[in-house]
Amino acid sequence: MITVEHLSKKFGDLVVLKDISIEIKKGEVIAIIGPSGTGKSTFLRCLNLLDRPSSGSISIDGVDILDAKADVPKVRQKMNMVFQSFNLFSHLSVLENLTIGPVKLRGMGTREVEQKAMHLLKLVGLAEKADNYPDELSGGQKQRVAIARCLAMDPEIILFDEPTSALDPTMVSEVLSVIRRLAKEGMTMAIVTHEMDFARDVSNRVLYMDEGRIYEEGTPRQIFENPRREKTRAFIDRIRSFNYRIGSPEYDLYAMNAEIEAFCEKQILPRKTRHNLLLLVEELLQIYNPYLSATLLDLTLAYSEKKETLELVCESTGEAINPLDPNLLPDELGLTIIDSLAQSIAYSRVNDKNRITVLMNKG
Amino acid sequence: MDLQIQKESNATAVTITGRLDAVTAPEYEKKFNELIAGAETCFVVDFDQLDYISSAGLRVLLATAKRLKVKGGQIRFANVKGAVKEVFDISGFGSIFQMDDSVEAALANLPA
After folding, report:
1. Is A282 in contact with B21 (Cβ distance < 8 A)?
2. What is the pLDDT of residues A77-116, one digit of tens each?
């Protein structure tokens, strides 16, 4: 359906995309993941010519759309885009947002278009908002209208540029469920997303972009469970892990807790696990407290969905010492609690740092 | 963490809300010591609204209870349940303190 060959894009001297080649077949759902600033959105914008590539070729159904004679508006009708910031027409009602494209660009009859628009609004669960204006809607509702507006043009492929990144976490699932439905119905889609569980569930293929290229691509299982290349592995590990550095005894426990809770939320960990994790972290840090004025402590939480394990690693600078040595503790309360929450606790000295590794109990 | 104080006929009922952790434990200890210094001797601490306790919280419960004992006072804990009870059980505090299923039962079990 879409063939991209040796695509590159520069902004002045800045090379954002280098030599991208890919084929997207009809019915495929491609998830595009990677760190910020690696050209994912620029790639999508090049596909529908919102940004003009610096070199390379893009063909849709065999037609080179970079040809000077190509009908760009017609290309954009085949390939529609949903943006992070919705981009609804604020002066038009929800219904008018959906009807303006087919009426003005395709010359379709108003009645027919309105009927179809109402059908699409029903599909995205917003039929009752047809006469509302965008500023009367929540973020999630706006994005669902944006998707319906896209569908009103009968696209053959939909490009999603971080469709949920601007949304309150409580609204993300309503938008993702609409996209899942489109995937089930066979819509060809390319989705730039930071929602990794969603990317894994809904896509047939995952592109990990880094260094301005498609650094690695594969099935969701390959990329998320067995990434082959170093940067992909590091990225996948990072999204499954949480890192926090503590440099003084006056660290903000509650600020750290909030970040840990956000990490647990992302991994969809049960409430009891979250509670036990917060308790485990507090107890460990209380034991480290006497050392914090003279040492840097790096805390890493790593969750493995596959093994259903949660591992904490505390790494501290300074002389070789095991802070959990019972002989060094004023009482056993903290250690007793840690012992009850842990499957295993190990001390090691690695690269001149003291490392405590705790594997949490399941459940 | 919030402490609500209610004078009962034979004791002072203290309802503790929120978390008793490394951040809030000093505040609990300070407020409780003020109550002890104010010549209160019998206490029921209601844990019904407490969501979380760590070893820091357990230590101040023990310290304040010990301080009270020196003055010949008594303390009972009511509604210790859920995650808080688990920490009590792990640490053995469940057998150190007098525990009751309700504030009413705790008040009834205190000397008149």
Report:
1. yes
2. 788 899 888 899 999 999 999 999 999 888 889 899 999 9
